[in-house]
Amino acid sequence: MIDVFTLRGTSERFNGPQFLDDVTRRLDPNRFQRTEIAYPASVGAANFELNPFGPSLNRSLTVGKYALADAVQRTPNRVGLLGYSLGAYVISSFLEDLYAGAPYTRGCEIMFVATVANPRLAPGPGIPGYGIAGAHRTWPSVRRFEAFNPNDCICCCPDRSPLRGISDALDAFSFAEAGGWSADLADRLRRGRWQLTADWWRDPLGTYRAYQEAARLMGGYLTGEHNTTYLRDGHTARLADTINREVW
């Protein structure tokens, strides 16, 4: 039996109806069993409880990757990871730490990784751009399967998109951690920790086009390119079929 540990997207309810259900319900039940990892799935006020003081994105990442490591260490079974959106971000961060040999990942062995709409998606064939939060760093050598919608700005963001600045500013945001968020922004300003730099004047026409494209992508985000399109166009179904066919 292969344990598939799943990590839900922002604001989805723990053990409730979730986006990843469209993948896991298609997996062969004779070979795969799903276990959901408990973590906040919160980006400040964006959380299932609509709590304005919800945990920040950074806090969700930290809790999620430590909970994931604990689950992997406890199971006697082979392990696959499956994450959507913020959940894929957690998996990316965990795998970066696993490759780097972080102590909390000791003993973790992963058979395969599958992500949907990963905000840390790395550039690759057929991928226009890369994740809005920046491409993930090095992962261990592991089977990987990625579902992405080319019109989804969360996983397929253009290199010089203004949307990247929004992602940077949200990393530590939470009303409950306002001091920490302010401190993080101040540190970004001092150290220049931004994906983009303020050099629009070098290419004003290119900058204008970048903002126009950002507006188009954000419009798509608001009308389903980050969620319903994956179901409608069969991305999640194809991902499940690929896992069933290639993971043994």
Task: Explain the overall architecture.
- The chain is an alpha/beta fold and 248 residues long.
- 38% of the residues lie in helices and 11% in strands.
- It contains eight helices and five strands, in the order E-H-E-H-E-H-E-E-H-H-H-H-H.
- Helix 2 crosses helix 3 (86-100).
- It is globular.
- The model is unreliable at 172-186 (pLDDT under 50).
In short:
The chain is an alpha/beta fold and 248 residues long. The chain has helices spanning 21-24, 57-74, 86-100, 163-170, 178-191, 204-222, 228-232, 235-246; strands at 2-7, 32-36, 78-84, 112-116, 143-147.
Secondary structure layout plus pairing:
Layout: E1 2-7, H1 21-24, E2 32-36, H2 57-74, E3 78-84, H3 86-100, E4 112-116, E5 143-147, H4 163-170, H5 178-191, H6 204-222, H7 228-232, H8 235-246
Parallel strand pairs: 1-2, 1-3, 3-4, 4-5
Helix pairs in contact: 2-3
